[in-house]
Amino acid sequence: MTSAGSGLTLLQTCALSLLVFTGASQFALVGALAAGGGPFTAAAGAFFLGVRNAFYGLRLSQLLALPRAVRPFAAQWVIDETTAVSLAQPGRRSARLGFVVTGLSLYVLWNVTTLLGALGAEAIGDTAAWGLDAAGPAVFLALLAPMLRSGTERMVAGLAVLLGLGLLPVLPAGVPVLVAALAAPVVLWARGRRRASRGDAGEGEL
Amino acid sequence: MNIWIAILVTAVGCYAVKLAGLLVPAGVLERPLVRRLAALLPVALLAALTAQQTFADGRVLVLDARAVGVAAAAVALVLRAPFLVVVGAAVVVTAGVRALGG
Protein backbone atom coordinates (compact mmCIF):
# COMPACT_ATOMS: atom_id res chain seq x y z
CA MET A 1 0.00 0.00 0.00
CA THR A 2 2.52 2.60 1.09
CA SER A 3 5.17 1.51 -1.42
CA ALA A 4 2.99 1.66 -4.54
CA GLY A 5 2.04 5.19 -3.49
CA SER A 6 5.61 6.43 -3.74
CA GLY A 7 6.81 5.63 -7.22
CA LEU A 8 7.58 1.91 -7.07
CA THR A 9 6.10 -0.30 -9.79
CA LEU A 10 3.98 -3.35 -8.98
CA LEU A 11 6.93 -5.61 -9.78
CA GLN A 12 9.33 -3.59 -7.61
CA THR A 13 6.90 -3.58 -4.69
CA CYS A 14 6.49 -7.37 -4.82
CA ALA A 15 10.22 -8.01 -5.34
CA LEU A 16 10.92 -5.90 -2.25
CA SER A 17 8.59 -8.01 -0.10
CA LEU A 18 9.85 -11.33 -1.50
CA LEU A 19 13.56 -10.51 -1.28
CA VAL A 20 13.85 -8.33 1.82
CA PHE A 21 11.04 -9.79 3.97
CA THR A 22 11.52 -7.71 7.07
CA GLY A 23 8.75 -5.15 7.39
CA ALA A 24 10.39 -2.13 9.00
CA SER A 25 13.28 -2.20 6.49
CA GLN A 26 10.87 -2.33 3.55
CA PHE A 27 8.83 0.64 4.77
CA ALA A 28 12.01 2.58 5.54
CA LEU A 29 13.45 1.96 2.07
CA VAL A 30 10.25 3.05 0.37
CA GLY A 31 9.96 6.14 2.56
CA ALA A 32 13.55 7.19 1.89
CA LEU A 33 13.19 6.69 -1.87
CA ALA A 34 9.92 8.64 -1.91
CA ALA A 35 11.63 11.52 -0.09
CA GLY A 36 14.21 11.68 -2.87
CA GLY A 37 17.02 9.80 -1.14
CA GLY A 38 19.74 8.13 -3.21
CA PRO A 39 19.66 4.33 -3.54
CA PHE A 40 22.59 3.77 -1.19
CA THR A 41 21.53 6.14 1.61
CA ALA A 42 18.03 4.63 1.41
CA ALA A 43 19.44 1.09 1.55
CA ALA A 44 21.73 1.99 4.48
CA GLY A 45 18.78 3.09 6.63
CA ALA A 46 16.85 -0.07 5.74
CA PHE A 47 19.93 -2.18 6.49
CA PHE A 48 20.41 -0.71 9.98
CA LEU A 49 16.79 -1.51 10.78
CA GLY A 50 17.43 -5.12 9.76
CA VAL A 51 20.52 -5.52 11.95
CA ARG A 52 18.39 -6.70 14.88
CA ASN A 53 17.63 -9.88 12.91
CA ALA A 54 21.24 -10.97 13.40
CA PHE A 55 20.59 -11.11 17.14
CA TYR A 56 17.44 -13.12 16.60
CA GLY A 57 19.46 -15.54 14.46
CA LEU A 58 21.99 -15.86 17.25
CA ARG A 59 19.37 -17.04 19.71
CA LEU A 60 17.60 -19.20 17.14
CA SER A 61 20.73 -21.05 16.03
CA GLN A 62 21.27 -22.32 19.59
CA LEU A 63 17.59 -23.08 20.08
CA LEU A 64 16.88 -24.81 16.76
CA ALA A 65 20.34 -26.40 16.31
CA LEU A 66 19.94 -26.37 12.53
CA PRO A 67 22.42 -28.29 10.36
CA ARG A 68 24.81 -25.90 8.59
CA ALA A 69 23.42 -26.83 5.17
CA VAL A 70 19.89 -25.81 6.18
CA ARG A 71 20.86 -22.43 7.64
CA PRO A 72 21.05 -20.45 4.36
CA PHE A 73 17.45 -21.49 3.62
CA ALA A 74 16.16 -20.80 7.12
CA ALA A 75 17.85 -17.37 7.25
CA GLN A 76 15.24 -15.51 5.20
CA TRP A 77 12.61 -16.31 7.83
CA VAL A 78 14.60 -14.97 10.78
CA ILE A 79 12.34 -12.06 11.79
CA ASP A 80 10.55 -10.67 14.86
CA GLU A 81 7.54 -13.00 14.67
CA THR A 82 9.30 -16.31 14.01
CA THR A 83 11.77 -15.58 16.83
CA ALA A 84 8.98 -14.73 19.26
CA VAL A 85 7.06 -17.93 18.44
CA SER A 86 10.13 -20.20 18.54
CA LEU A 87 11.39 -18.79 21.84
CA ALA A 88 7.96 -19.35 23.40
CA GLN A 89 8.05 -23.11 22.69
CA PRO A 90 8.91 -25.60 25.46
CA GLY A 91 11.24 -27.90 23.47
CA ARG A 92 13.45 -28.10 20.39
CA ARG A 93 10.96 -30.09 18.32
CA SER A 94 8.11 -27.64 18.89
CA ALA A 95 10.48 -24.68 18.46
CA ARG A 96 11.51 -26.00 15.02
CA LEU A 97 7.88 -26.64 14.12
CA GLY A 98 6.88 -23.17 15.34
CA PHE A 99 9.68 -21.58 13.30
CA VAL A 100 8.68 -23.37 10.07
CA VAL A 101 4.92 -22.86 10.44
CA THR A 102 5.23 -19.18 11.42
CA GLY A 103 7.87 -18.52 8.75
CA LEU A 104 5.94 -20.16 5.93
CA SER A 105 2.52 -18.72 6.77
CA LEU A 106 3.87 -15.19 7.32
CA TYR A 107 5.96 -15.34 4.14
CA VAL A 108 2.93 -16.33 2.05
CA LEU A 109 0.54 -13.95 3.80
CA TRP A 110 2.92 -10.99 3.73
CA ASN A 111 3.60 -11.35 0.01
CA VAL A 112 -0.04 -11.90 -0.95
CA THR A 113 -1.11 -8.81 1.00
CA THR A 114 1.72 -6.85 -0.63
CA LEU A 115 0.42 -7.84 -4.07
CA LEU A 116 -3.19 -7.01 -3.19
CA GLY A 117 -2.13 -3.71 -1.58
CA ALA A 118 -0.07 -2.73 -4.62
CA LEU A 119 -2.94 -3.59 -7.00
CA GLY A 120 -5.33 -1.63 -4.80
CA ALA A 121 -3.06 1.40 -4.67
CA GLU A 122 -2.74 1.38 -8.47
CA ALA A 123 -6.53 1.45 -8.70
CA ILE A 124 -6.84 4.32 -6.22
CA GLY A 125 -4.35 6.61 -7.96
CA ASP A 126 -3.48 9.74 -5.98
CA THR A 127 -2.76 8.37 -2.51
CA ALA A 128 -2.42 11.75 -0.80
CA ALA A 129 -6.01 12.71 -1.58
CA TRP A 130 -7.21 9.79 0.55
CA GLY A 131 -4.92 10.42 3.50
CA LEU A 132 -2.82 7.36 2.63
CA ASP A 133 0.40 9.37 3.05
CA ALA A 134 -0.32 9.22 6.79
CA ALA A 135 -0.23 5.39 6.66
CA GLY A 136 3.59 5.32 6.49
CA PRO A 137 4.28 7.25 9.72
CA ALA A 138 1.41 5.41 11.43
CA VAL A 139 3.04 2.07 10.55
CA PHE A 140 6.40 3.26 11.94
CA LEU A 141 4.71 4.52 15.09
CA ALA A 142 2.94 1.18 15.59
CA LEU A 143 6.28 -0.66 15.21
CA LEU A 144 8.02 1.78 17.54
CA ALA A 145 5.46 1.95 20.37
CA PRO A 146 6.10 -1.52 21.88
CA MET A 147 9.86 -0.81 21.94
CA LEU A 148 9.53 2.26 24.21
CA ARG A 149 9.69 0.24 27.42
CA SER A 150 12.13 2.21 29.55
CA GLY A 151 13.55 5.69 29.93
CA THR A 152 16.57 4.79 27.81
CA GLU A 153 14.39 3.89 24.82
CA ARG A 154 12.36 7.06 25.21
CA MET A 155 15.52 9.20 25.40
CA VAL A 156 16.87 7.57 22.25
CA ALA A 157 13.56 8.14 20.45
CA GLY A 158 13.37 11.78 21.56
CA LEU A 159 16.93 12.56 20.51
CA ALA A 160 16.42 10.78 17.19
CA VAL A 161 13.31 12.86 16.46
CA LEU A 162 15.23 16.09 17.17
CA LEU A 163 18.14 15.01 14.95
CA GLY A 164 15.89 13.71 12.18
CA LEU A 165 13.80 16.88 11.98
CA GLY A 166 16.52 19.39 12.83
CA LEU A 167 18.95 18.15 10.18
CA LEU A 168 16.32 17.67 7.48
CA PRO A 169 16.66 21.17 5.95
CA VAL A 170 20.48 21.11 5.94
CA LEU A 171 21.54 17.58 4.89
CA PRO A 172 20.78 15.62 1.67
CA ALA A 173 17.66 13.40 1.66
CA GLY A 174 18.08 10.14 3.58
CA VAL A 175 21.17 11.28 5.50
CA PRO A 176 19.39 12.85 8.53
CA VAL A 177 17.85 9.45 9.39
CA LEU A 178 21.30 7.85 9.38
CA VAL A 179 22.64 10.61 11.65
CA ALA A 180 19.60 10.15 13.91
CA ALA A 181 20.68 6.51 14.37
CA LEU A 182 23.63 7.93 16.34
CA ALA A 183 21.12 8.72 19.10
CA ALA A 184 21.43 5.07 20.17
CA PRO A 185 25.20 5.01 20.93
CA VAL A 186 25.10 8.57 22.29
CA VAL A 187 22.39 7.78 24.86
CA LEU A 188 24.08 4.48 25.78
CA TRP A 189 27.36 6.29 26.31
CA ALA A 190 25.75 9.08 28.37
CA ARG A 191 23.88 6.56 30.53
CA GLY A 192 27.02 4.49 31.02
CA ARG A 193 28.95 7.57 32.13
CA ARG A 194 26.25 8.64 34.54
CA ARG A 195 26.11 5.19 36.03
CA ALA A 196 29.90 5.07 36.32
CA SER A 197 29.98 8.45 38.08
CA ARG A 198 27.38 7.23 40.56
CA GLY A 199 29.68 4.32 41.17
CA ASP A 200 27.11 1.52 41.12
CA ALA A 201 28.07 -1.35 38.89
CA GLY A 202 24.88 -3.25 39.73
CA GLU A 203 21.83 -3.98 37.63
CA GLY A 204 20.90 -0.61 36.18
CA GLU A 205 18.57 0.09 33.29
CA LEU A 206 21.37 -0.79 30.90
CA MET B 1 17.00 1.72 -12.16
CA ASN B 2 17.94 3.47 -8.91
CA ILE B 3 14.99 1.80 -7.22
CA TRP B 4 16.15 -1.65 -8.36
CA ILE B 5 19.66 -0.93 -7.04
CA ALA B 6 18.20 0.12 -3.69
CA ILE B 7 15.99 -2.99 -3.53
CA LEU B 8 18.86 -5.35 -4.36
CA VAL B 9 21.35 -3.72 -1.99
CA THR B 10 18.77 -3.85 0.82
CA ALA B 11 17.85 -7.46 0.03
CA VAL B 12 21.47 -8.63 0.06
CA GLY B 13 22.27 -6.66 3.23
CA CYS B 14 19.20 -7.80 5.15
CA TYR B 15 19.71 -11.44 4.13
CA ALA B 16 23.38 -11.26 5.10
CA VAL B 17 22.64 -10.07 8.66
CA LYS B 18 19.97 -12.73 9.10
CA LEU B 19 22.39 -15.43 7.95
CA ALA B 20 25.25 -13.98 10.00
CA GLY B 21 23.19 -14.44 13.16
CA LEU B 22 22.72 -18.12 12.37
CA LEU B 23 26.34 -18.77 11.38
CA VAL B 24 28.43 -16.67 13.77
CA PRO B 25 29.48 -18.57 16.89
CA ALA B 26 27.71 -17.36 20.02
CA GLY B 27 29.89 -15.01 22.04
CA VAL B 28 31.07 -12.83 19.18
CA LEU B 29 27.88 -10.75 19.16
CA GLU B 30 26.78 -11.78 22.65
CA ARG B 31 28.45 -8.87 24.48
CA PRO B 32 25.88 -6.83 26.46
CA LEU B 33 26.88 -3.52 24.89
CA VAL B 34 26.49 -4.86 21.35
CA ARG B 35 23.12 -6.42 22.18
CA ARG B 36 21.92 -3.19 23.78
CA LEU B 37 23.02 -1.13 20.78
CA ALA B 38 21.26 -3.48 18.35
CA ALA B 39 18.05 -3.15 20.35
CA LEU B 40 18.28 0.66 20.43
CA LEU B 41 19.16 1.25 16.75
CA PRO B 42 15.63 0.42 15.50
CA VAL B 43 14.20 2.74 18.18
CA ALA B 44 16.27 5.66 16.90
CA LEU B 45 15.58 4.95 13.23
CA LEU B 46 11.84 4.39 13.63
CA ALA B 47 11.45 7.53 15.75
CA ALA B 48 13.30 9.66 13.19
CA LEU B 49 11.34 8.14 10.29
CA THR B 50 7.99 8.66 12.03
CA ALA B 51 8.80 12.31 12.72
CA GLN B 52 10.06 13.00 9.20
CA GLN B 53 7.14 11.38 7.41
CA THR B 54 4.73 13.30 9.65
CA PHE B 55 6.26 16.76 9.42
CA ALA B 56 8.44 16.84 6.28
CA ASP B 57 7.40 18.13 2.89
CA GLY B 58 10.51 17.56 0.82
CA ARG B 59 13.17 19.28 2.93
CA VAL B 60 10.80 21.74 4.60
CA LEU B 61 9.02 21.11 7.92
CA VAL B 62 5.26 21.63 7.81
CA LEU B 63 2.29 21.10 10.11
CA ASP B 64 -0.60 19.69 8.07
CA ALA B 65 -3.38 17.08 8.11
CA ARG B 66 -0.85 14.24 8.48
CA ALA B 67 0.09 15.42 11.98
CA VAL B 68 -3.56 15.14 13.06
CA GLY B 69 -3.79 11.67 11.48
CA VAL B 70 -0.62 10.42 13.19
CA ALA B 71 -1.87 11.87 16.48
CA ALA B 72 -5.04 9.79 15.99
CA ALA B 73 -2.84 6.73 15.42
CA ALA B 74 -1.00 7.50 18.66
CA VAL B 75 -4.29 7.64 20.56
CA ALA B 76 -5.31 4.31 18.99
CA LEU B 77 -1.97 2.82 20.13
CA VAL B 78 -2.48 4.04 23.69
CA LEU B 79 -5.92 2.38 23.61
CA ARG B 80 -4.16 -0.85 22.47
CA ALA B 81 -6.02 -0.98 19.17
CA PRO B 82 -4.87 -3.63 16.65
CA PHE B 83 -2.31 -2.69 13.98
CA LEU B 84 -4.78 -2.21 11.12
CA VAL B 85 -7.05 -0.01 13.25
CA VAL B 86 -4.06 2.18 14.16
CA VAL B 87 -3.09 2.67 10.51
CA GLY B 88 -6.74 3.04 9.47
CA ALA B 89 -7.29 5.77 12.07
CA ALA B 90 -4.36 7.76 10.66
CA VAL B 91 -5.64 7.45 7.08
CA VAL B 92 -9.28 8.26 7.84
CA VAL B 93 -8.52 11.22 10.12
CA THR B 94 -5.98 12.67 7.65
CA ALA B 95 -8.47 12.36 4.78
CA GLY B 96 -11.19 13.88 6.97
CA VAL B 97 -9.10 16.90 7.94
CA ARG B 98 -8.19 17.44 4.27
CA ALA B 99 -11.84 17.20 3.25
CA LEU B 100 -12.63 19.90 5.81
CA GLY B 101 -9.98 22.07 4.19
CA GLY B 102 -7.26 21.59 6.82
TrEMBL record, chain B:
InterPro entries per record: Brnchd-chn_aa_trnsp_AzlD
Pfam family, one: AzlD
Keywords, in A-Z order: Membrane, Transmembrane, Transmembrane helix
Membrane in keyword set: yes
Top-rank taxon, per record: Bacteria
Sequence intervals crossing the membrane: 6-25, 37-55, 67-97
Protein's UniProt name: AzlD domain-containing protein
